[in-house]
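Why this split exists: single-chain examples teach little about how molecules sit against one another. For that reason, every record in the complexes split bundles all components of an assembly together and asks for one structure covering all of them. Below is a record exactly as it appears in the raw files.
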Amino acid sequence: MQTVTTLKDLRQAVDDLRLTGSLALVPTMGALHEGHLTLMREAAQKARHVVASIFVNPRQFGPNEDLDAYPRQLAEDSAKLEAEGVALLWAPGVAEMYPQGYATNVSVSGVSAGLCGADRPGHFDGVATVVLKLFNQVRPDMALFGEKDWQQLAVIRRMARDLDLTLPHVDAIHGVAIVRDPDGLAMSSRNAYLSPQDRANAAVLPRAMDAAIADLLAGEPVAPVLAALEEALLAGGFASVDYAELRDADSIALLPEDNGNARLFVAARIGGTRLIDNKAVSA
Ligand code: PAF
């Protein structure tokens, strides 16, 4: 695996790879876990070469968020990518990505409103901006993202449609199903922040979501089901719930009732760590 940290070297490396086949980009912020590695494996099924990026993007962190504390472990991550057969690692520093005088922001409205967009103002602008830059830098045939960040995926798809991005592959922005630990907790780089006790308690999140989905499918009204879900999280060791909402899977519009394309979205805090999860409302 080749690792590049400058745009000049990236362009050369991408041109070289392109001579022998298609490229799939997997953008990440590092601290790679099995969920990321699943993305790499799926990317390898879809394209000749996998290009991974690792960049902890300051523009998607709010002033009181965990930018400084966010785990950075490039050597360990590189070894994992190498073992997966990734061809190229793009690992720019902040000054390479946002040089002196950088002044452009990409803002996607609609799908960015609500959920994490409401709790983390500016977050999705930061995501859209860096993802558009990554697309322009790597010029991949396709890119893969985890469905744990479902709203992020919706924002990126909207941006790609709105700005006529021309990623050649038919399924150019590909969502990959959430990878879960055996107790059901969605894998996340932030799970590493949890104490052993909080990690054990955190499994109440997917369990409570499953129970809520079962109640919704049984025809129970949405508001009391969501209230019961919040109560279960607080009783199970979560300190607070940022949101527990039913939304349309594509438009991310808030739903008063299941419309057949509904998804349950939750963000909740445990031991100072904010966890998110989402599940389809289906049997
Ligand atoms: O999902 C992430 O890890 C990040 O939001 C992404 C897509 C790499 C952009 O920084």
